[in-house]
Write a structure and sequence with these properties.
- The chain has nine helices and nine strands.
- With about 240 residues, the protein is of the alpha/beta class.
- The protein has two domains: about 160 residues, Alpha/beta knot (3-Layer(aba) Sandwich), CATH 3.40.1280; about 70 residues, Trp Operon Repressor, Chain A (Orthogonal Bundle).
- The strands form three sheets. A five-stranded parallel β-sheet has the order 2-1-6-5-7. Strands 3-4 form a two-stranded antiparallel ribbon.
- Helix 4 crosses helix 5 and helix 8 crosses helix 9.
- The termini are far apart.
- The model has no long low-confidence stretch (mean pLDDT about 95).
Amino acid sequence: MRINIITMFPEIFEAYRGIGPIRNALDKKILELNPVDLKQYAPGPKEVDDYPYGGGSGMVIKAEPILAALSSIKEKGKIILTSPQGKKFDQELAFKLAKEPTLTILCGRYKGIDERIMHHIDMEISVGDYILSGGEPAALIIIDTVVRLLEGALGDVSSCLTDSIISGILDAPYYTRPREINGIKVPSVLLSGNHEEIRKWRRKEALKRTLIKRPDLLRYADLTEEDINILKEIEREVYNG
């Protein structure tokens, strides 16, 4: 996969090359990361943005440097704009994007981009209902989520397939050494060596966490009859004392 990022701050993405799944994917040649410095395509120094026509606060990224940056990229693939007006980014969308051979992400900033660029955009994506200083953090979220779905990017593929959002429920609690810290012990079942009992404990704890913290996920989770019975048991324990 090739990911182009049009940004005013390419150094952010350069720093990210050496981290986790992105580093693995780059080392294995299954990913090309191509930050494109928008400032290099401005008609003059400090001419990336300008005041909006009609007045108002804030600045708008000009059309010319964006068009020039896009023209410099031979293989653009699907062109994505990070934008609060976009489709909410989730795991389902990440799976779809991971199937694309090439993506180009345009990082929004200030009040936005000149509207005359929008017919070049294939998709607007928002990572949440909150305000960021620019689209770079959003682009990193998209890239990290998509890249870890590429075959070979993770050392342990099962780690990806059992992630909370993919499985439909939150993870069970995890513990590591030592067995006791500040008087708090690791649950004895995890030390028992009984794999079936460990599986049951983890499933129950995962379902309990989901019911308490993210009950909305249960509407879409693929629950077995055993899961449903466990949830009924949890509801009695949690809500009826």
